[in-house]
Amino acid sequence: MRKIVVASDSFKGSVSSIEVAECAELAIHKVFPDCEVVKIPVGDGGEGTVETLITAMGGEVVSCVVHDPLMRPVEATYGILGDNRTAVIEMATASGLTLVPVSERNPLRTTTYGTGELIKDAMERGCRNFLIGIGGSATNDGGTGMLQALGFRFLDRDGNELELGGQILNRIYEIDCSRALSQLRETSFTIACDVNNPFYGEKGAAYVFARQKGADDAMVRLLDEGLRNFAEVIKRTGRIKIDDIPGAGAAGGLGGGFVAFLKAELKPGIRMVLDALRFDECIRGADLIITGEGKLDKQTCMGKTPFGVLQAGVRQDIPVIVIGGSVEEVEALNKSGFLAVLPLLPYPVSLEQAMDKDFTCRNIGRALEQQLRVIQYYMNH
């Protein structure tokens, strides 16, 4: 083999994406010493996206103090890639559910304001391209807080400026864009969004997600009515109709806020990451792609990293092998198009041992070497 690409997600709690690739490279060179190995850390746009893209594309992690979902100061980080123009943000670092104790969770009060502050900080540092993951939010404010941090104002029927949180959605009557940051006109946003929920309704942001953020039944109804009102105001004031856009309900309507006000593009997380990496160019001419993640099951083919890598391989007729620490639904995975599905555990072990980094690295090398020996045999006969 002349070229093999290794593009695996991390095995969470055990080994990172780049460590998986390094283990694979050692195994490949045992069987094919002269093979070019292209190592590409990847992820699906969720936790770890900043680290993944900085590792693959260079850049730095930036830290700044913003406001958490309840407007308390919190130190948050994001990445600026090597081009010094592209920022990678995980909104959960500023507006995530884990920042709010269970006893204080209330999506009428929580706000995405801190996410807007991260965007503003990155724009002040020269960034004009944004890749943003919006999973794990504590909010249901339709993105109003994020927009308020960027200079947008939401007014009631009397022209009074409204405060923060999901509680304002029912009272929004006018939108004042006159103070929105001028840099936004030359800025593009790509949003990692792996849900298809609409902005409001039975399958919308409030009814599907708000309870896990602290809402009771009455709050859910109020929030849904608020999102419906906000969507109507957006449409009435000359913006797009966001009611039925798949993914507009992501992160408590933040997806819809990005689309309506910042002309953002919503993409599946893995697609956002692979496009940023120019993955299709990286794999061109490869003989084989190796991918993987900690657990392979029926969810793998619903937007997880290995499936995104598989789809890229299929487009160029490159076979893809997938490795996993825990493997279920092998038949379904095979039917989806993987050349082989390789479980890593050689014998029953405790969870502690299964998660041990050295143990996992040895098993990645062992499993791949054995598979590659079979491939080598049939190449030579």
TrEMBL record:
Keyword Metal-binding on entry: no
InterPro entries documented for this protein: Glyc_kinase_flavodox-like_fold (IPR018193), Glycerate_kinase (IPR004381), Glycerate_kinase_RE-like (IPR018197), Glycerate_kinase_sf (IPR036129)
Residue stretches in coiled coil: none
Any one Gene Ontology molecular-function term assigned to this protein's record: glycerate kinase activity
GO BP annotation list: organic acid phosphorylation
One matching Pfam family: Gly_kinase
Annotated EC: 2.7.1.-
UniProt key word Transferase: yes
Keywords assigned: Kinase, Transferase
Highest taxon above the source species: Bacteria
Family, similarity comment: Belongs to the glycerate kinase type-1 family.
The name this protein goes by in its record: Glycerate kinase
Organism: Parabacteroides distasonis
